[in-house]
């Protein structure tokens, strides 16, 4: 496996125009590849707006099968550029069964694997339980020519258990396609707390597991289609961090961006030697983690 690995991500704003959104993703992928990226990550549900602000049965028409039209198009691009691409789709698995699913396309255009979002939020403006069936594939990394990818999706990023499970199953880096932002009516202090908490928890996953983390978020204001709220101001801030949580590259909060950074994969083993968290885990004493709360 080549070391170092150059990774890229595409932070973009989205509209209701699927073709325009996918074209923007493709343009970003091409730019990242031209800058040397061998692995490119796209944001959560990158072919459209974040439709989960409301419950609307017509949105199910936007779901697609996997394999399907988007994986076919991204696969052709991966083959042309000879890179690995990780995208994020609204999967139509069966009538009434839909998932929020990440896909990994290999350098030869084939579908290397998928991950179905495990943690499904349901909060004002993020009404995902209406749309998405919880994932049933577990925390299984996807083996690719760019490494063993621990792909998780958005709300998963708040759970140390998910990151740890991916690490224990052999992931060499963590990837988080994401859609998160502010309520525009929040004050600046609250916005700062939320964004910094979001970055801190994911950098902590890098530290706790001694591996790089790649996070791709969307950017821009997406109005509430029903006009009941002020919408969501997605805060961008996509970033690439090393195995000690160090920031290698970070995108702005207010505009699209393509980030590229070089990851020294040998550092993961070196970091785990000096911070041997895996060695010192008390697996004999963690039974209570399987309980909802308390003893």
In a few lines, what is going on in this structure?
By secondary structure, the protein is an alpha+beta fold.
Plain-language structure description:
It is a single chain. This protein has 295 residues and is α+β, with helices and mostly antiparallel strands. The N and C termini lie far apart (45 Å). It has one domain: Carbon-nitrogen hydrolase (Nitrilase/N-carbamoyl-D-aminoacid amidohydrolase, 4-Layer Sandwich). The model has no long low-confidence stretch (mean pLDDT 97). A 6-stranded mixed sheet has the order 5-4-3-2-1-17. The protein has a 6-stranded mixed sheet with strand order 8-9-10-12-15-16, covered by helices on one side. The protein contains 5 helices and 17 strands. A hairpin with a 5-residue loop joins β15 and β16.
Task: Please tag this protein with its features.
alpha+beta; 5 helices; 6-stranded mixed sheet; 295 residues; Nitrilase/N-carbamoyl-D-aminoacid amidohydrolase; 24% helix; globular
SSE diagram, text form:
Blueprint: E1 5-11, H1 18-34, E2 39-42, H2 69-81, E3 84-94, E4 97-105, E5 111-116, E6 122-123, E7 126-127, E8 142-144, E9 147-151, H3 160-168, E10 173-178, E11 181-182, H4 188-209, E12 213-217, E13 219-222, E14 232-235, E15 239-241, E16 247-250, E17 257-263, H5 266-274
Parallel strand pairs: 1-2, 2-3, 9-10, 10-12
Antiparallel strand pairs: 1-17, 3-4, 4-5, 6-7, 8-9, 11-14, 12-15, 13-14, 15-16
């Amino acid at each position: 496996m080549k070391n170092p690995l150059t990774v890229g991500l595409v932070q973009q704003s989205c509209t209701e125009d699927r073709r325009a959104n996918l074209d923007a993703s493709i343009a970003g992928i091409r730019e990242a590849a031209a800058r040397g990226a061998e692995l490119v990550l796209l944001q959560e549900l990158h072919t459209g707006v974040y439709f989960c602000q409301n419950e609307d049965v017509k949105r199910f028409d936007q779901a697609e099968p996997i394999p399907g039209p988007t994986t076919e198009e991204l696969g052709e691009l991966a083959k042309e550029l000879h890179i690995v691409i990780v995208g994020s789709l609204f999967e139509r698995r069966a009538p009434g069964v839909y998932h929020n699913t990440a896909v990994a396309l290999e350098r030869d255009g084939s579908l290397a694997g998928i991950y179905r979002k495990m943690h499904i939020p349901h909060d004002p403006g993020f009404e995902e339980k209406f749309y998405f069936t919880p994932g049933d594939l577990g925390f299984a990394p996807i083996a690719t020519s760019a490494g063993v990818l621990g792909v998780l999706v958005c709300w998963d990023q708040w759970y140390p258990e998910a990151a740890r499970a991916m690490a224990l199953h052999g992931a060499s880096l963590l990837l988080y396609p994401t859609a998160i932002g502010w309520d525009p009516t929040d004050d600046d202090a609250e916005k700062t707390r939320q964004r910094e908490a979001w970055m801190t928890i994911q950098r902590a996953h890098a530290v706790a597991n001694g591996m790089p983390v790649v996070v791709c978020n969307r950017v821009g204001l997406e109005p509430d289609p029903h006009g009941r709220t002020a919408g969501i101001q997605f805060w961008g801030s996509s970033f690439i961090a090393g195995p000690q949580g160090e920031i290698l590259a970070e995108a702005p909060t207010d505009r699209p961006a393509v980030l590229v950074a070089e990851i020294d994969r040998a550092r993961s083993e070196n970091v785990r030697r000096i911070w041997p968290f895996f060695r010192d885990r008390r697996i004999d004493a963690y039974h209570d983690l399987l309980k909802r709360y308390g003893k």
